């Protein structure tokens, strides 16, 4: 969550350097004006190096990154794409935007995709799977990748919340055929609005690059107005100002993640008492610790804890109060989902039962020990009162 908490001087200097070098705000061309300043290009190069992939494309948002990646993977009408019930609505929007059919798998106690349920939802029409590293906790990628490999299905990681997190030696977002990150204002690092597509396959990135730029192939032998093209595209280009902010934020990513993880560890210590169980993580997880999530015995108790925290001037994040924007069972406004699941509200019972018993605390870089202890005191009191 804290990209916006560590923002200021470095970002300001990066943006100022655009104006000190000709003020070109467009990622392409104007070479004689810009004195070698290519912020978006530099952001892509540094980001791909940071996460260890060969190819990265900066775009306008995490949602457009997901859509562009699906397009580049060749997903379209007639294809089914499986994602998980607990995610932000954007994941399903991207599937619907490319004309594919959204299919929803249940989550397990990791609050990410349940690999056993994924297996059950695969059909001959399944073209891709989008596991989500919800709130920065790694999905069960080893199981998911092996299931998808066996069934010859593509994997796109929704790593909107996973930027800077790892599973074993691999950065989240880099294990599948493609990955998508978000730099919106509430994510680990931010460019205001923005996103990134990564892949290890040049062919996929080449398609994505052209698609996000009206089909422009940026042929080095042709001027832009005579540029070659093979497919229709759209405009999802990142601007130089966003690229500049991204460059400054990227230098802070490791520090942000380790600061969040410290707060997360403190919550695990302080909340280790009967009546509370923690969200599960796959072995060798090194999440971004965007939030601290735990389970209690009942939905009613989760709501009591939420109410007690609010009364004490503290907050929760998404769970248990706001599963609406983050739970597929609530998205009757998406007709393509409603077509698939006429009884949408009751369609993902395992997920609902798990989510309703969960409490999620937002982690902030401004959280000191005293604040963590205040949270834990309120929670302990709520549990003791029942
Ligand atoms: C934030 C988010 C997105 C969308 O990113 P934007 O940059 O806000 O468009 C997609 N998926 C998940 C899981 C998210 O949390």
Please, could you describe this protein's structure?
It is globular, with a radius of gyration of 21 Å. The protein folds into 2 domains: 3-250, Aspartate Aminotransferase, domain 2; 253-384, Aspartate Aminotransferase, domain 1 (Alpha-Beta Complex). Helix 2 (39-51) runs parallel beside helix 8, helix 3 (62-72) packs parallel to helix 4 and helix 3 (62-72) packs across helix 7. It has helices at residues 9-19, 39-51, 62-72, 90-97, 115-121, 141-151, 202-211, 240-250, 253-270, 299-311, 335-340, 349-356, 369-385, and strands at 55-59, 80-84, 101-105, 126-130, 154-158, 166-167, 170-171, 178-182, 195-199, 277-278, 285-286, 291-295, 358-362. The chain is α/β, with parallel strands linked by helices and 386 residues long. Pyridoxal-5'-phosphate is lined by residues 61-63, 87-88, 90-91, 132, 158, 160-161, 182, 184, 187, 195. Pyridoxal-5'-phosphate binds at residues 61-63, 87-88, 90-91, 132, 158, 160-161, 182, 184, 187, 195.
What key attributes describe this structure?
single chain; 386 residues; alpha/beta; Aspartate Aminotransferase, domain 2; Aspartate Aminotransferase, domain 1; seven-stranded mixed β-sheet; three-stranded antiparallel β-sheet; 37% helix; 14% strand; binds pyridoxal-5'-phosphate
Brief summary:
This protein is 37% helix and 14% strand. With 386 residues, it is of the alpha/beta class. The strands form three sheets. Strands 1-9-8-5-4-2-3 form a seven-stranded mixed sheet, with helices on both faces. A three-stranded antiparallel sheet has the order 7-6-11, with no helix packed on it.
